[in-house]
Amino acid sequence: MPAVRNQSSSKGASANKSVQCPTCFKRVSRQADLKRHMELHDPATKSRFQCVFPGCKFKARQRSNYNTHLTTHTREKRYQCPDCHVSVNDPASLTRHRIKRHDYVPASRTFADIY
To answer: Which of 1, 9, 59, 114 has the least CB density, counted as fewest CB within 10 Å?
Structure first.
């Protein structure tokens, strides 16, 4: 029979504890999230991704946000509503559309679903 671990000393228990930002005191779910959050306080990370379109001053810290922004210039609409003809450029816009126009109720997300 395997040994029973003390819940408080196992890695799984410590991974589920939230951690607090020492600068602004915001709580985040994981240590890895704190590392990403700390970039908000570092001026050097503000312009990691700068829009290449002439006249646009958009800057992003994360590549995914930058890529979503680029679709405003290219007019690419990759996300199609399954209930109607509407297409949008990012998944959050699709969810907002479905909630507003089709009474869509997103499935609730649990901690286990996210991590």
So the answer is: 1
pTM for the model: 0.56
Q: Indicate the SS3 state at residue 88.
A: strand
Do residues 42 and 49 make contact, with C-beta atoms less than 8 angstroms apart?
no
Q: What is the pLDDT along the chain (115 residues), one digit of tens a residue?
A: 444 433 334 444 444 578 999 999 989 888 888 888 888 888 777 678 899 999 999 988 888 889 999 999 999 999 999 999 999 999 999 999 999 999 999 988 765 555 4
